[in-house]
Amino acid sequence: MAIDRAELERLLGESTRSLAWHGNRPPDVLLGELPADIAPDRYGDGGVLDELQSYVAELLGKPAAVFFVSGTMAQQIALRIHADRAARRTVAFHPTCHIDLHEGRAFERLHGLVGRPVGDPFQLLGLEDLEMVAEPIAALVLELPQREIGGRLPDWDDLVTQTEWARARGAAVHLDGARLWQCSHAYQRPLDEIAGLFDSVYVSFYKDLGAFSGSALAGAEDFIAEAKEWRLRHGGTLFAMWPYAASALACLQVRLPRMKAYRDHAIAIANALRESDRVQVVPDPPHTSMFHLHLQVPAEDFESNVLEIAREEGLWTWQSTFPSINPDWQVVELSVGDATLEFEPAEVRRVIERLIAV
Questions:
Q1: Together in a domain, 138 and 32
Q2: 3-state SS class at 33
Q3: I want to staple 90 with a disulfide (CB 3.0 to 4.6 A). Which of 22, 114, 133, 280 is the partner?
């Protein structure tokens, strides 16, 4: 029997608790998080936008940063600049790269770039994979952590070696740091040391932090000046971007100090789930505050259980699952945030056991 999507949406809106992320925060709650004394920008200049950009540049140890309403726009522009400067059109990335999977091949259609997937889609990128690339590349894109394979991180030494490989071949190194905020405690290194390995760094303000929307691109001053010109060409220099910037700055200041607590809680939850032979934690233990759960339950039973828990407990779990080659196993992502911290690991295990009931 097909799941009632209309009821699913209604229950999502009515839920009082959420297992993942920062929960279901309606517009009045989001607006209530903004400070009262916001100084507006005009077409990307001044006010809270300048404050946010300076703060991000300082956090990442880069000379400059620029705000974008969309991470898709930010990353394509970064790669376009690197390609133009190198007079090369090929960019290399892991097969699960967001730029390749989720952006309608815009890097190719809009910017004339050529994508070169490298490595195994189910494994972290390795130096041995890169060494199989013979053609000159303009840029190497690395994602930290790698969301599609469970939020995994390469070992620090491997990361350093991969960035050195690219630079030795005259290529720039770009960081897809949509969830970079999670990585500092995993590596036991400050954000600016991680970002220091890269020529350009993209970060998101909603994925970990829960801001309205938006992102930033950080790098050298001349690089960011050029990125601002491309932002205008993309229609991304809006008349007023201060609501996004104010939300981003507020969420950065509140939630960045909580990243260690999120990661610690993710590891505690993984420990609580480990004994179940119908639940697999990927990776185990989690590298960051985000990980995947592989649940042995048919899709129809899983969806019915989601609805039942939402009806009976006002608890929201998952609206959808990741693709799985085995119909008897469902893959979901648990991104630990403020809402998750309200659950003891034992209660998370209870909820998961209800979800896999057949």
A1: yes
A2: coil
A3: 114
